[in-house]
Amino acid sequence: MKKIVLLIVLSLSLTSCVLFDAFFRIEGEVKETCPSDKTCIKSFSSYYDFEVWECIGDPIARTVEIIVSVKHNLPHQEVAFHERGFSAYDENGNGFRVKEFKFPKSSYMAMFGGYLTFDCPTGVRIKGKIILENIPPSSKEFKLIEGDVSYDNKDRNGYSMKDKGHYKIKNLDINWKK
């Protein structure tokens, strides 16, 4: 019995990637999914479904809107998409910045590099947009889009969100409006 307890304590203290919250939930490995033959998506957390619905380019405004959604089964969450740590690259290696994030009932904070927060109720799919600017119409696809997200129980005590993750979208075609 002592060996089992000692092994559990040692494994928990040596494993830095295991996260516990007030309910002792254990964060699992986040796997990359490939919903098409080409595009692959890695969510920011194993607790969240993170999907890409569309990627629409406006050649006149030189913007691209990426329609995404998030869904989870945790207690009601507050989610924040961060501008700092965001990057996007087209097939030619050109890098682009995010113009803004848009989600329902959201608020923007300019501090700490800028981020957008929104409420994400349990079991409800929330759609939003990642909007990129200064994209030339000659760009056909994004080889990589990645960024940081933080999230936590909406009723938490304290200011900062304790859970953080990083999402990736690979090989996403841009559908330019005609």
Task: Spell out the key features of this protein.
mainly beta; 178 residues; globular; 9-stranded antiparallel beta sheet; 1 helix; disordered N terminus; 5-stranded mixed beta sheet
How would you characterize the overall build of this protein?
With 178 residues, the chain is mainly β. It has one domain: Immunoglobulin-like (Sandwich), CATH 2.60.40. The chain has 1 helix and 14 strands, in the order αββββββββββββββ. The strands form 2 sheets. Strands 1, 2, 5, 6, 7, 9, 10, 12 and 13 form a 9-stranded antiparallel beta sheet that branches. The radius of gyration is 18 Å and the shape is globular.
Summarize the entry for a quick read.
With 178 residues, this protein is mostly beta strands. Helices cover 7% and strands 49% of the residues. Strands 1, 2, 5, 6, 7, 9, 10, 12 and 13 form a nine-stranded antiparallel beta sheet that branches.
